[in-house]
């Protein structure tokens, strides 16, 4: 009973904008950010309200850098809505990088940063399609 009251109190006092800032601080903390760790999302499991606020805040989903989980990339892309995005493509597996590059091609106009690390010549075709759709970067 006391826990329910405490959750209700926190959720009514803490405005969504502040909650998003807290989630952003967790997301960009050195442990999660430097390791490109997707586990920062565990903060969304605090309660249903936190999940709704976090999952619907495009600002929290602007960085797409999957190393092993391509499904996480699609979730991130969908939740970022129309916000600008930063994409990091690493070379853990050729199929993952090709699928990711092909999947972000329709969103090339939203790219603010594109990091390409250790890509092979086999990644040239999907990469060239993205380059055609890129806006002029400053």
Protein described:
The protein has helices at 2-13, 16-27, 30-34, 48-55, 70-79, 94-104, 124-133; strands at 63-64, 85-89, 111-116. The chain is mostly helical and 138 residues long. A three-stranded parallel beta sheet has the order 1-2-3. Helix 5 (70-79) runs parallel beside helix 6 and helix 6 (94-104) packs parallel to helix 7. The longest helix is centred in the N-terminal third of the chain and has 12 residues, at 2-13. The mean pLDDT is 76.
Number of helices: 7
Q: State the distance separating the first and last CA atoms.
A: 55 Å
Structural class: mainly alpha
SSE string, helices as H and strands as E: HHHHEHEHEH
Residue windows where pLDDT falls under 50 for at least 5 positions: none
Question: Mean pLDDT across all residues, rounded?
Answer: 76
Strand percentage: 5-15%
Given the C-alpha coordinates, what overall shape results?
elongated
Strand runs, count: 3
* Largest β sheet strand count, sense and barrel closure: 3 strands, parallel
Query: If you compute it from the alpha carbons, what radius of gyration comes out, rounded to the nearest whole angstrom?
Result: 17 Å
Q: Helicity level, as a percent range?
A: 40-55%
Q: Major sheet: order of its strands?
A: 1-2-3
